[in-house]
Design a protein that fits this description.
alpha+beta; four-stranded antiparallel β-sheet; 4 helices; globular
Length: 146
């Protein structure tokens, strides 16, 4: 099995519950696909100056977690960061995975007892909603072109 570096990768075997994204069978497949499409335009504006292909998960957490929720179901939770923002990740059944955890390098996050996050709250920010839609569009385009 290919080795990944996102949190929870080894146990990320939850199946897709939606056929919205053909070819995405599990979170590792989604990570592989998103690795090709995450870009500065999908990064949170406050972090965009530091985004690079080498740190492609930077600023992608909430839009990625809600996109994963569309495909795999489950819930999105958030780790409260020192800057007051939440870092979002997914929980599906007993499987916890964070497709964008690599942006924190060696810093360990706690994935226990965090508050649930809701898309209506996150997407009240029109820019975040637009970035989510754009990421989804890029992903679908990539999957159709395979």
């Amino acid at each position: 099995m290919k080795e990944y570096y996102f949190y929870g990768w080894a146990a990320a075997d939850v199946p897709a519950v939606s056929d919205t994204c053909p070819g995405i069978a599990n979170p590792r497949d989604l990570y592989d696909a998103l690795s090709d499409v995450w870009c500065a335009e999908t990064c949170a504006p406050r972090m965009r100056d530091n985004w690079s292909r080498a740190n492609r998960t930077l600023g992608q957490c909430s839009i990625t977690a809600f996109l994963a929720q569309d495909i795999f179901g489950g819930k999105v939770y958030g780790v409260l960061l020192s800057d007051g923002h939440f870092h979002c990740y997914n929980v599906v059944g007993g499987c916890v995975f964070d497709l964008t955890s690599e942006q924190f390098g060696d810093t360990e996050l706690s994935y226990e007892n965090n508050p649930e996050q809701f898309r209506e709250v996150h997407f009240a920010d029109p820019d975040k909603k637009m970035r989510y839609e754009y990421l989804k569009q890029l992903l679908l385009k990539r999957q159709r072109g395979r």
